[in-house]
Amino acid sequence: MRVEIEILGSGTSSGIPTVGCDCWVCRSDNPRNKRLRASALFRVGTGEAETRLLVDVTPDVRMQALRANLSSVHGVLITHTHADHCHGLDDLRALYWGGGRQPLPIRAYPEAMASLRRAFAYIFDDEYDYKGVARVSPGVFEHEPFVVAGVTVTPVPVVHGNMRVAGFRVGDVAYITDCNEVPAPSMEKLRGTRLLVLDALRRAPHPTHMSLPAALEVARRVGVERVFFTHINHDLEHDSVNRELPPWAQLGYDRLRAAVEADGRVTVTEPGPNGQPHAVAW
């Protein structure tokens, strides 16, 4: 089974460039330093059989979907309900329409689902009489794997300050954002992961996010073949930081696509000038 993850956004809550900031990263003309809010897309299988699972619905989701040429998804996974990860929920309506107006499965921790129901009550109200809204099929999970649109997803609980956040593993690919700790049981859930996208906010320690050194150590301990870091702020300039990292670890960037192929190879692609993906050497 082929499993790909596309980084739809690699930035922290403010996005990069940050409003009002004049630092060298925010002023950079390097497109890999332009970061929308952190989100990802799992693509499982190929061709007509491809299943697409969106991870988080950021305030930038409209632009992310347009850039990715994404018109529909088969399910939505919510890591947590901080604004930069869920306040684009209303924009699911375009993906709902593109999917033939079939209710979109959306999965979250129970406390996260309760928060979404409060903030977006009309989306969850079957009696809400307005056609310009997404219809969803909500469900919750805890520690055990669950199935969405025929795809088995393993939740990976991580710590984000005083709240829990869900990471997700599909096959040998995992995505973890917004955490300052990966507990020992979750490290075990990650064993065998070959491709990982992991939170790394900045160089210095932070109370609710992984620093780059801490994230690198987690990736080493898991033993991944390839790791890309995400949820990056303007302390980390793409090219200069990557020159310091081992070849199997790099900063992620918007529109990067990495996959564990059906034959076991790990591949990395990005959009070319014609919009079609082309291989990236590593």
Order of helices and strands: EEEHEHHEHHEEEEEHEHEHEEEE
Query: Largest beta sheet, briefly?
Result: 9 strands, mixed
Based on the structure given, which CATH architecture is correct? Answer: 4-Layer Sandwich
Q: Share of helix among residues?
A: 10-25%
User: What structural category characterises the helix and strand content?
Assistant: alpha/beta
Strand content: 25-35%
Kindly provide the radius of gyration, computed on alpha-carbon positions and rounded to a whole number of angstroms.
18 Å
As residue ranges, the low-confidence spans are none
Description:
By secondary structure, the chain is of the alpha/beta class. The chain has one domain: Ribonuclease Z/Hydroxyacylglutathione hydrolase-like (Metallo-beta-lactamase, Chain A), CATH 3.60.15. It has eight helices and 16 strands. The strands form two sheets. A nine-stranded mixed sheet has the order 6-5-4-3-2-1-14-15-16. It has a seven-stranded mixed sheet with strand order 7-8-9-10-11-12-13. The protein is globular, with a radius of gyration of 18 Å.
Q: How is the topology of this model organized?
A:
Layout: E1 3-9, E2 39-44, E3 51-55, H1 61-67, E4 75-77, H2 83-86, H3 92-98, E5 104-108, H4 110-119, H5 121-124, E6 136-140, E7 146-148, E8 151-160, E9 163-170, E10 173-176, H6 184-190, E11 195-199, H7 212-222, E12 226-230, H8 238-242, E13 249-251, E14 257-260, E15 266-271, E16 277-279
Parallel strand pairs: 3-4, 4-5, 5-6, 10-11, 11-12, 12-13
Antiparallel strand pairs: 1-2, 1-14, 2-3, 7-8, 8-9, 9-10, 14-15, 15-16
Features:
single chain, Metallo-beta-lactamase, Chain A, nine-stranded mixed β-sheet, seven-stranded mixed β-sheet, 8 helices, 16 strands, 29% strand
